[in-house]
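From the shared-data thread, chain only:
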Amino acid sequence: MNLKFGTDGIRGPVETLITPEACLRIAHATGIVMKELGWDTVMIGKDTRVSGYMLESALQAGFIASGVNVRLLGPLPTPGVAYLTKSLRNSFGVVLSASHNDFLDNGIKIFNADGEKLSKELENKIEKLLETELKPVKTEELGKARRFDESGARYVEFCKSTVPSTVSFSSLRIVLDCANGACYKVSPEVFEELGAEIIPIGVTPDGFNINAQCGSTYPELVRDEVVKQRADFGVALDGDGDRVIIVDKEGNILDGDDLLYILAFSNPNRVGPWSGVVGTHMSNLGLEDGIKKLGYDFKRADVGDKYVSKMLTKKGWLLGGETSGHIICKDLVSTGDGTIAALKVISSLLILEKNPSEVLANYKKMPQVNLAVAVKNKDIANDKDLKVRIKEIESDITVGRVLVRASGTESKIRVMIEAPEESVATKFANDLINIITSKS
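Structure, as tokens:
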């Protein structure tokens, strides 16, 4: 059983990798490791995939067998599980979700007692235990399970509490796309209870339609609805609610780089914990330049919100994120939270009394082309011929960047090229994709 942690937990096809047996073993191994740290209760949340019901039961059995108590949260955004984990003592959190992937996949994300993704050291400990005998604790030491029906209400109230009392959403019309995922119930409640008029889409999950032509990976759906409904904003979340893409009233799609810049621009206090911003190797060069011109330091982490969070902790900073829409506001939350990031961006713009286009006019992105190709062997990313071509392209681009990496969540290799002209970036990106395809 080849179960390994990637950039965001363990993820893959339900039929071949994230099986009931796999979940049983992962839960048992995780329970043993967590009990050694003094955490005797696990909060289990999930998104809306049809496989979640089956795998939730397997996780429950594995944790109980290790002597860990289980609290079943039901469908709840990943950041909601992180929040509850942090707010309750002696507990850790597990989320059944494959984030932005389709319903055929599922995955397991684990949070420590501080509501943060596990360290590599703890992941390694869990992996080592996966192949050992699954032996339950003594019967009198078995864990117990119960439903925790307050999870959604607690998360809604927490989200609302992050909006300053002086800010009102009562004049706003917002298109909200919940990707038929974990946010389908709680996020509309948050915006409605703050006074906004909500036009909901992606709020009718059936177990199979999560992320299907909707959500943060298909922001065009929200964009078209914003224009049609003459809305003030569009908010597109992903299947587990840790990503967000925002659309302004003109129909402009704002990615994670844009949202980071808006949050940095709106912050008047740029010292101490607010003196720097963390992006990733995917963050646009234009963002780095713009952030530095605002007076911040800027650091790049590896791709993955857990690495952004780790860099923020290392630097002692509070704001970071990814182009894909993972935004971490560490003054409020311990991990990427699409709903809270949207609330903070919209609140910031209301306080500034500016439209997004007015703020974003202060920085200019470099043309960036992102392509991905499915592969059976992700080691192709280290192919010698590919590396030679990358070096050639880097020498041809006087200003720009080339990044080729194996996806940490899918069987794909991703190619990113920045260049002063989009046509140049597109040509070179296709060159690399052709090499990868010929090797696969």
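The chain has three domains: 10-149, 160-360, 368-439.
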